[in-house]
Amino acid sequence: MCGDTPTVGDARNNALMVFSGTLVDTEYRDGAFFADGKPAGAELVAHFEVDRWWKGSPLPEIFLFTEQYQAVDHSISVSDCAFRFDVGKRYLVYAGFFFGRLRAIYCSRTAEIAKAAEDLKLLGNGSRLVRKRRTL
Question: 19 exposed, middle or buried (CB, 10 Å; 0-12, 13-18, 19+)?
């Protein structure tokens, strides 16, 4: 379906951002369009709490569009290239702009962190995201 998987270096170079984080929530957002420009209803958006960066501006959270759509009749359609995330799991994400929105496409080497050992070894330590503590 994807052809050859890119190397870690190519995936990093082609990505707008590379980060690791935990998927904390998903929600459907209205106003989605298919790649051909036709209305798609709502698109599932994945909300990540970020813990480490390899490329891009460090942000504490990221929202990725997933190419999983819900029509007005509540039927679901999923693109062949959609990466399916599970809430509560930690991922290594290679993200970029595809079809006008920030996405992690299935063929980009995005993976559950437990399955990303080769990538993590080649990417190195990256930068740990330091969260500021709130004071009362």
Answer: buried
Q: What tokens appear for 44 in the block?
A: 């599932």
Two tokens at 132?
């500021």
H or E segment to which residue 96 belongs: strand 90-98
Q: What is the pLDDT of residues 101-127, one digit of tens each?
A: 888 866 789 999 999 999 999 999 999
Tokens of 95: 């993200």
What is the pTM assigned to this prediction? Answer: 0.85
Residue partners of 55: CB distance under 8 A and separation at least 6: 12, 15, 16, 17, 18, 19
- C-beta separation of 96 from 121 below 8 A: no
Q: Give 9's DSSP letter.
A: H
Please write the tens of the pLDDT for every residue from 7-52: 999 999 999 999 999 999 999 988 877 777 787 788 889 999 999 9
